[in-house]
Amino acid sequence: MDRIADIWGPRTPHARGTVWPARVDRHLEKGVAEEDVERWVRSACVLCSNGCGCEIAVKDGRMVGVRGMAGDVVNHGRLGPKGLYGSWSWANSADRLTRPLVRENGRLVETDWETAMGRIAEVSRRLLDEKGPLSHGFYTSGQLFLEEYYTLAVIGKAGLGTPHMDGNTRLCTATSAAAFKESFGTDGQPGSYTDIEHCDAIFLFGHNMPETQTVLWMRVLDRTRADDPPKVVCVDPRRTKVAEEAERTGGVHLAPRVGTNMALMNGLTRELFACGRVDEEWVGRHTLGVEELRETVEPYTPEETARICGVDAEDVRRAARIFGESERVLSTVLQGFYQSHQATAAAVAVHNLHLLRGMIGRPGAGVLQMNGQPTAQNTRECGADGDLPGFRNWSNPEHVRELAELWNVDELTIPHWAPPTHAMQIFRYAEQGSVGLLWISATNPAVSMPESSRVRRILGGGKCFTVVQDLFLTETAELADVVLPAAGWGEKTGCYTNVNRTVHLSEKAVEPPGEARSDLDIFLMYADAMDFRDSDGAPLIKWRTPEEAFDAWRECSRGRPCDYSGLSYDRLRGPTGIPWPCTDEHPDGTDRLYADGVFNTDPEFCETYGHDLLTGGTVTPVEYRAKSPAGRAFLKGAPYVPPHEEPGEEYPLLYTTGRTVYHFHTRTKTGRSRELNRAAPDAWAELSAPDARRLGIAEGDRVRVESPRGAIEVRARIGHVREGTVFAPFHYGRWDPDEVSPDGAPRQANELTMTIWDPVSKQPYFKTAACRVTKVADGDGPAPAPTTTASEPVGGPVPPTRGGPEADTSAETVPTPDYPGDPATAPETPGHIAEAAAPGRS
């Protein structure tokens, strides 16, 4: 089976309220048969946020393949193309980092661990003596393990005392966390993947699920292809596979002008009020702010919404009618909203729709503010994104005292005098020289951050001592002062938590190459070198193994919304992952939050006191307590305001970036998979057919796309993007397994994006910029964009995207296992996995 050409594999349709049938997907290295596999090692896939349970095939000490686990509640045995072809093949690459590197006379040279860590500790101690803890910054990932994030958080907050700590989750899912806090009091997904089995309608807001969460899209397709399909509503400026499914199911495709999401959401919300679709009794008991919200959205009639967004007024009415008339709606949200103008306000507006209809906490009625990375949720839970561990509140002295007691340090050591420093500000401090040591782990900001030429100048400018720990010599690592070789997935043990709070344990399958070490061991080595101590003079970090770190985290989470107190490594070695909160009260986890309509907004329990969605101004503790939330959710609104940068005479088009199904982030792993790289080997830019005709551009022509900040030169795909809009994938930097761009033309999509961020979530804008496109040269063939996805061409003789017979790949439908507590087995009754509120709330 060619799972490059057939991305989602064979269908297994099933009726509403029934269990999703199991199908086991498998891929093995060419020449390896299943009987050749010596061991299958339990894990979960790390190439999107879905968290699919899988097993790693091991032969001769190498990872040689992967297969899905039929009994896992997340994926029921399925894997997507990235998981099948890209999750393990990178590990055997010849260009792995195997020894530490240090910069000598402008060049990176190999050294030993003692020398490399000694140099880091020397700079660290000097900066602490000269400038104090604010001289240190940490920028991490959404791809490490829970145990590693928690260790890093303790080092930063209790060892050094720096607030300068964030992850690249700031670029992709910071808005998810911010929106949950604003509406419900704390972070944490209310909904569940099992809502797909029960809903009457699915709304996807800026979420190209077929390419970003391929297995979840398989789950949707197996419902929409049944005899009683849910309607699909798609909000996306491109005609994606979601848009096609919306038309097929009698739903709606709303393609708003880039940067107008807030106006569209206000229009949909107004229609619920205007058409009497609000559950007034439920809203009165369980929410605050309904009259203010009604007043905010009143000007956004369908006609006014259509004028701002460039959509049809009747489509706005129809989408609102589907939401208002359905008994159970599942909404999913991703980068089209998060990385755009008024990000948090638009994401909160999705919550408003559900709260107004009383559709939360029950089967089929849920919200999934999606993540982009496999362990983004752990970054947020453990405090490696700058938040306090366990969803604690920086502004609540009792929460700070709890951590100080847990870690046995002085409360004043824990930086809580101001909100944590977000990534965009950390890099600005590095640019100015106030952050003198910047430690980057498992991410590649030289390619992934906005205005990437500026980021490269910061990293290579000499004002900041930069440490990078990674698997390969990435574009970022090339600029570092010290490079530390890290072990990757399958080469170490640890846990991670997916979008719907399901925790998996990934066991070590093989040894890392050379002298590479796990990220946990690297952080412990730094803590030892710095000799961090608690108030009694004992070592601050008291664990040495992943399991010991997990046990320490479990105690930190006890009584908080993300309660892991009922979990252990032994429990996680069972047949499936387990969703938190997992406690004595709910020993097998919790499928949905807020089933009782009581939210985490109590002033003594909440994670934040909230913000003004328009300005980002904070709500004081006194103001918050005066609202007397008493477990009620907040309905918050904001008027639409135009984006910072709009098209004009010089830059007449709108520029937006995104992903393709065959690559993950900056291709550090997927670019080293022959199958995936062959499917999407080089960058491109998508234009609509009318724009292409006007500009005299044909399929495959080389074009220059330019914004006020920079430019790329790539081949053009004439595709299904909205007229007036240019789309470019952000995955491509300077590195390639093959020389696909021998002329060295710039192709980093983030050369054009801007260093501006949402006022609440601090997530930068990747979806709103002005640009112009000019033809550089005639093409000698089609663009390298895939034909299987939203990037398919409009007409023209373009060969279809295929994978070829590179390896043994199969999909086998198997008898559906008995999933403990899968609510699809009992649609109206909480099952083995509870549907409950987080423990410890008032």
From TrEMBL:
Coiled coil: none
SUPFAM superfamilies given in the database record: ADC-like, Formate dehydrogenase/DMSO reductase, domains 1-3
4Fe-4S Mo/W bis-MGD-type domain location: 38-94
Pfam families: Molybdop_Fe4S4, Molybdopterin, Molydop_binding
CDD domains: MopB_CT_Nitrate-R-NapA-like, MopB_Nitrate-R-NapA-like
Amino acid composition bias (Low complexity), ranges on this chain: 786-795
Cofactors required: Mo-bis(molybdopterin guanine dinucleotide); [4Fe-4S] cluster
Alphabetized SMART domains for the sequence: Molybdop_Fe4S4 (SM00926)
This protein's record includes keyword Glycoprotein: no
UniProt keyword list: 4Fe-4S, Iron, Iron-sulfur, Metal-binding, Molybdenum, Nitrate assimilation, Oxidoreductase
Region (Disordered): 778-842
Xref: InterPro entries: Asp_de-COase-like_dom_sf, CT_Nitrate-R-NapA-like, MoPterin_dinucl-bd_dom, Mopterin_OxRdtase, Mopterin_OxRdtase_4Fe-4S_dom, Prok_molybdopt-oxidoreductase
Family: Belongs to the prokaryotic molybdopterin-containing oxidoreductase family. NasA/NapA/NarB subfamily.
Name of the protein in question: Molybdopterin-dependent oxidoreductase
Organism name: Streptomyces chitinivorans
